[in-house]
Sequence to fold (129 residues):
Amino acid sequence: MGSSNNDKSNKEPNSNQIKTWKFTPEDSLDKKATFSTIVKLEQTLVSDYQLHVTYGQDQQKHLNTPISASAWRTGLVSGTNWKPEFINVNQTDDNTKFEYFVDGTVEWKLLGMTIYSQPKLYKGFVSAK
Fold:
């Protein structure tokens, strides 16, 4: 199995930064109350899939509001590419947690060619600290 270190599928265009989905402009929230949390989406024998959520508090109602999110994979990733295609984080009735949806694909590669595309869908709740 082979892997290319220059995979741009989970990068912002013309950047080396991890692709981020934005939900709420930060300037509409209290600048002193910005937080982040990480949830482990999946753990395999050789790698982990993680979701990073940044959130803040609404200036008037003091509700936790998602600002942005990104997903990545750590560990042994050789021979595969993780491509998150959609991330959504929503407020819930409980101000201490968010509901998340992460949709993506793992491409299994052999000699640089994709031999199998495995869809991945994660959904659940993440606590706001």
